[in-house]
Structures are given as C-alpha cells and as structure tokens.
Amino acid sequence: MSEVYQNYIGGQWVSAVSGQTFDDLNPADTTDLIGRFPRSDARDVDRAVQAAREGFAQWRRVPAPRRAEAVRRAGEILRRRKDEIGRLMTREMGKVLTEALGDVQEGIDTADYMAGEGRRLFGVQAPCELPQKLGLAVRVPVGVVAVITPWNFPLAIPTWKIFPALVCGNAVVFKPAEDTPLLATVLVEILTEAGLPGGVVSLVHGIGEEAGDALVRHPGVDLVSFTGSTAVGRQVATICAAEGKKVSLEMGGKNAIIVMDDAALDLAVDGAVWGGFGTTGQRCTAASRVIVHEAVAGAFTDRFVERARRLRLGSGLEPSTDVGPVINARQLQRIHEYTRVGRSEGARVLIGGEPATDGALARGHFYRPTIFADVEPAMRVAREEIFGPSVAVLRAKSFDQAIEIANATSYGLSSAIYTRDIDRAFRAIEALATGIIYVNASTIGAEVQFPFGGVRQTGNGHREGGWTVLDIMTEWKTVYVDYSGRLQRAQIDSADR
Ligand code: NAD
C-alpha cells in the first residue's frame, strides 16, 4: 500500500474534497509507485485562496526582516537535508543525482539571497521640486500569489517564486506539476517547519486543467506566477488579461549554441553534450540547436556524435548513469514523434532516434540521445521545443548567418557562442536576441543572483532571479510628505514663470 499524501490548506493537511487521487510514478521504473496525491478541484482551490487571504492580512504586517528569517530557516533545513531530498528528486523525476543535488543547491542559494533581501527591499528616494516635501517610493506586497510550476526543476523553480513572494509579504497558493508532487510536499513541509504561519503558504495538488485553471481564475488571486510551456502560459495570460490580474510568465525555449571556426572545438563539444543532453534535454535553457561554422562542421559533428555514443542511460541514482529517463510516456511519444517529423522534413538522424528498451530500461521512459544533421532553419525540429535529448545541428557560412539562424525562432531564452575572437564575442552579445547569453559556455548555467528569463514567446517582460524578481512580487507605492505647513502646488508653485 503506497503512501497517500494531502494538500496543505490554512495550516492543515487535508484530502481533496472529491476524495480523488492521482498516482506519482518513478519515470526510471514505472513499477515504483511513489505515492498518491489529491486530485483537487475548484472547491479545494477556493478553500486555499480563502485561507491565503487571511494569511496575507497577517503576514503583510510582519516586518520584512522577520519574514526573511523564515526563509533563512527553510534554507538551513534544505542544506541539512540536501542529500536525502536530492535522492527523492531523482526517484521522482529522473534527473541524475548530481543534477538533483544541484537543483536543491539552487533552492539553498535562493534562500540565502532572499534572506538578505529582507533587510534591503530597497525603495527609492528622489528630490522633490517643492521645498519641505519628501518624495519616496516603497515596495508593498501584491497580495495572494498563485505559484504554478513545471516538473523539470521541482525544487529550484518553486523556491525562485515562493521565497521572494514570502519575503515581500505575500501569501502563496502553490499548485505544483502533477509529475513532481512529492518534492512540492517536501518543500511545503520545510516551510511549515521553518515557522510560517498557516494560510501564508498553501499547497493544492492536481491536474493543470482542473486545479491550475481554477487557481488562475479565482478572483481572490492577485498575481499568477507561472513557469511552463508557452501554450499553457498563453492561456493563463489570456485569463489574467480578462480578469485584470498581474501575471508573470516563464515559458519555453529553443536555445542555440553557435560554434565559430576559431572555437576551442573540444570545449564546444563539452558544451553541446552538457547543454543538449544534461537533464535529458529537459531544461528550458537546453541547447537544442547547435549552429556550426561550415569550416569546422564536419570535425565538430564527428566528435559530438562520438561523445553522445558514450553516454550511458539508466536510473539517475546509479553513479554510472549520464542520462536519466524522460518524465513520462506522453513526453516520450512526443520526442519520438519529432524524430519522425525531422526525418520526414529531410533531416538525417546521426545517432539515437528511438526509445531505449534494453534490460531494465524497458521499465522506464528512456530515449536515446539523438542528433539530427542536415537541418535547415525552417524545419520544425529547428524551430519547435522538443524538450528531450534531441539536438539539431545546423551549418552556417558566416558569423552573420549564424546569428540570423540563432535568432530565427519565436523563443528567446538563452544562447551561446564559442569563439576566441573577442570582437566576435561582443558582436554576438549585441546581436543575439535572448534574455541570457553565454560566451564560451553552454546555454545552461544560470545563477540565482542574476535576472532569469527571456524575450518573445519565452516571457512577458518579467525576470525572476536576482533583484528583478522583486518587481514581480511587489507593487510600488509612491509617498509624498509635505512638511511646509502650507498649500504647495506641484508644477504650479514650482514653475519658474
Ligand atoms: P506545462 O505547461 O504542461 O505545465 C506547467 C504547469 O502548469 C504545471 O503545474 C501544470 O499542471 C500547469 N497547467 C497545465 N495546464 C494548465 C492550465 N490550463 N491552467 C493552469 N495551469 C495549468 O509545462 P511542463 O510540461 O510542466 O514543463 C515543461 C515546459 O516548461 C517547457 O516548455 C519548458 O521550456 C518550460 N520551462 C520554462 C522555464 C523558464 O524559466 N522559462 C523553466 C522550466 C521549464
């Protein structure tokens, strides 16, 4: 009998009103049932939002340095339990243990950063045009924040949102991805252990179209902070526009590495392997395209394929494993469908291109690392996010053409260039139309103290991470204090005419 988990609403662990559950399976071995989680609907969401409104009324009055102490304590618990949580993550979503530990570390780093923010949360003071008048702008919380997250960073991404939301004085209703409900439960348990009062954080498990949709629509939610696919993000944005809600979106990517003819080729191959196949290609910043200068395309591709051939598939808990499973059967099918699409468009599959089913792999969702050659920029495999271990190699005749190809997608999250020419590197920084750019490093590797996000179909103008997340999680309140004791009229009494 597997364990049955609950929602966390108003300081209580409770089942879904419907009594229904959904299963959480290990993607490396689907005979391993991790647990059953509540399949919540609009009624559960309503209870959580009501509790959050009450929680918010209290929490906003707690001074920010005190609020930040709860986040600091959560970070300490994460640090203490890092290894155990990393193992749970690998079991629940498949990424290899070293990467799962990195995911937990990102949560710890975010706690460290945001705990300090409790004593900053800087406002702005500027001179006033009238004498004996003080003008300043301060940050105030937004209210109840709906946090909706994907499964690929089941701890880090929720902490990017929840920790700053709490330090800024908001209450949170958290609807995690249905593929990683256990890690979400662990995070909320840690927040309660860290001393957050009931109602300040609620957890509502469930399916996106049910619990997620109800949460986005709920009139008691002031801000929706969403990370996930562009298709769902657009729907969320449409609902929020109609309801007049603030919404922050972090969505898909089709990130490119450019390899110039003067690149350190082995370094570029390292970057392509790590960016393309790390996390089984399931990162929003994954390097799903490599654009190689034609002068080195042959040499680069040979080495890239050779390295991909040596990657070992398996359970992420095995130290020998390089590439873990993909998240679920639907995603496995989708990745394989893209192999078919690529072939039918004229791309050549150099390696992989099929599910891996030998031995124990048959019990999980494994796909062989796949490299397409002869890819043209207009092909679907060069434009659409596959979100799996599939990399398209394209050729460019020049630097300018490489940049043009890199920018020829509707996404704009991350990009990279390998070159030893400093002028080219800076011209690339100027020309690449993405929110994040790497020079001589792969498209992945963000650090929490910097803005994270992208342009075009990747985002809607917000940036998580660093100080910029505060603009999502707060509103500005502008304050004028006139201590002259007389009527002073701005623009009129101050005008020199
Ligand atoms: P997804 O869009 O299917 O789901 C994301 C979340 O939204 C889940 O919690 C899901 O339950 C919920 N959801 C689904 N339908 C909903 C609806 N109608 N209303 C409200 N909520 C709904 O994405 P996924 O498969 O979990 O994650 C993969 C995607 O996430 C990829 O496109 C990837 O690029 C993107 N991603 C982006 C970033 C970023 O920061 N830009 C980071 C990680 C992942």
Mind explaining what this structure looks like?
- With 497 residues, this protein is α/β, with parallel strands linked by helices.
- The protein has helices spanning 42-59, 64-80, 82-93, 97-117, 156-167, 181-193, 208-217, 230-243, 265-277, 294-309, 329-345, 380-383, 399-407, 422-431, 469-473, and strands spanning 7-9, 12-14, 21-26, 29-38, 124-126, 133-141, 144-148, 171-175, 201-203, 223-227, 246-250, 255-259, 287-293, 348-351, 370-373, 390-396, 411-412, 414-418, 436-439, 455-456, 474-482.
- It has a 7-stranded mixed β-sheet, sandwiched between helices. A 5-stranded parallel β-sheet has the order 9-8-7-10-11, with helices on both faces.
- It is globular.
- The protein has 2 domains: 7-251 and 459-479, Aldehyde Dehydrogenase, Chain A, domain 1, CATH 3.40.605; 256-439, Aldehyde Dehydrogenase, Chain A, domain 2, CATH 3.40.309.10.
- The chain contains 15 helices and 21 strands.
- The structure holds nicotinamide-adenine-dinucleotide.
- Nicotinamide-adenine-dinucleotide (NAD) is lined by residues 148-153, 175-178, 208-209, 212-213, 216, 227-229, 232, 235-236, 250-253, 284, 385, 387, 413, 458.
- The site of nicotinamide-adenine-dinucleotide has 30 residues, from helix 7 and helix 8.
